[in-house]
Sequence to fold (256 residues):
Amino acid sequence: MGEIAGLVVGLAVLGWGGYATVGCVARKAVLASSYTLDESIGEAAASQFSGDACTNPKLIEAFERLAAPLRAQLPADAGVMRLTVLDDPTVNAFALPGGYLFVLTGLVADATSVEEVAGVMGHEMGHAALRHGVQRVARELGARIALSVALGGLDDSLAGLAGLATDVVGLAYDRAQEQESDDFGAALLAKAGIDPAGLGAFLGRMEAHPVSGWLSTHPEPHERRQRLLEALPPVSGTAPALPTLEELRQPCHAAP
Fold:
């Protein structure tokens, strides 16, 4: 956790430098750090979910076929995207810092098309590639640092602040981050030859029938959907051979 401790110190230093908001300080601190910070936080947080991972090789292969054309269009500095399917009925997917991508079986059960699932995956890859997760951690750390300073200093709080990194999943994205990931995901899908309207369709259903899992960390589906549909990029890549929705709904664990 040396990188995390370094972030804590960096936030404290930047905070004393007079930046106007915690969010601004957090973004600057993250952009000044190396990508190994993302990987350290992501690895620590990902270990919480290993017991819920699906093991059916046919299911995993189907998801890897869906992820492959998206991975192929990622920028070189986006890091490795490690995909895990979780046995969980919640309609959700999430990305941890360092490229740890999780899709819950409840998302696939709720989806009406493969393009919807691909759209959500592209959006989550955007969060990881744009380092939004680390910025969320840094923003929360910055707020806690400010409180610690107000109460008399940081001496007893560094360990607790660094421990926040393992709870990154529960920290909500802000509006700007959601819009950035929508744009990133739509462009990624279009370059991969997948219709980005699938992401818009998913957001439309979340607006009509809200579910707590996705919306707890991904707010304002109506505004985002309207904005996305007004500027959908044209599909430019060759259409890949995608798995069917039925293949993505195979049992999480293979029969013995």
Summary: The two ends are 40 Å apart (CA to CA). The chain has a mean pLDDT of 80.
